[in-house]
Amino acid sequence: MTMDQLELKRAISGDEAALRRLWTQHSPHIDAVVRRLCGDPDLAADVSQEVWMQIFRALPSYRGDSQFGTWAHRIAVNRTLNALRKVRRVAGIETDIEDDTASVEMDSDRTFLAETIEQAITQLSPGARAVFVLHDVEGYTHGEIGEELGITAGGSKSQLFKARAKLRKLLAHLVDDNSSVATVAGKVNVAPI
Amino acid sequence: MSLLSEEELDVMVDRERTKGFPPLNDWDTIAARLREEGIIRDRGRRVVTAGGNWWLRAAAVVMIAIGSAAVGRYTATRLPDQTSVAVATAEPTPARQASNTAPTAGSTDFRSADEAWAVLNRAGAEYQKASAYLAANNSVQNVRADSAPVYQSRLAALDQVMQATHSALNQAPNDPVINQYYLATMGAREATRQQLSAVQTVGAKLKGF
User: Fold this and answer.
1) Do A169 and B3 count as a contact with CB atoms less than 8 A apart?
2) Are A77 and A97 in a shared domain?
3) CB distance B204–A189 less than 8 Å?
4) Domain holding A58: CATH number?
């Protein structure tokens, strides 16, 4: 039995120290995806708590087929999207994507200048934000995103295109201000659209 | 106003991907709910006598000292060079000065072992949160591209410490001091991993977690 298996066995048996170690090790990544998908920090804190409860409840069903972090990450994404649907924050996703002519940009966004990409992401519609975060940040394929959100891969691509266009506009002033963004060189490894 | 280019956006996304965040909740909140649902099954905590296990307590003190120094160096505007890694010779930093002058109300006036452990646990949790916060907010602008070997060495050392403490946990799974030691190392390792990610080439992508 490996150390990780031993640790999981202890966690499943209700050992608080082992449970806490799992949380400490994985919360930076799990909480990050919850925070990005939610946009709102207060909502993210509530959702994150539910996510961790669900992870620990489901722990006995973890078979070790994938890495624990990957398994927990899936639960986090599913649980967060469900929570967002419940609060009607993702209610418009399907409509947005089905209607390709619908703009994700509102007039008020024209005057909004984001200082960071995290800030800019919060200005996206919930659907566009989910697609952007899952694809560009978390590395999901459009097929996987389609399954998660109940949309087509084409719809996901379309939403991503709009999200990126909006982010480029929201963050454009950083280039104009000759910020560090413009000076960063090097190849970027981002999952293909 | 010109648009941000696709490549520039990709650079920002890449930075965002490796960025760390402090936890959204504290462990005590989650633990309370886990207890309510019976997922945490408390066992009788073994009382550690001061006389018989003084070395464990000393180890905890050393770990906290090392941890504080690590945070201090972590926040320093000048990166450590290869010859000045030893934490004992680290120059004072804002974080260290803060820790020297921070109030320690009640720390010398414990009424019970449980009370002392509660303070220790709280301090451990605060340390982890502070490490995560500093990793997220105070490192990227201060890193240099040539500092990767320093972080790699530190990461390797912390990996060894984690293995050692993990082995110790196999022998004494409920020992709170070893747990503190392990958690503190884990926090420092995560902070170092994020620092390393920040200084590596933009094209380098972390493989899982």
Assistant:
1) yes
2) no
3) yes
4) 1.10.1740.10
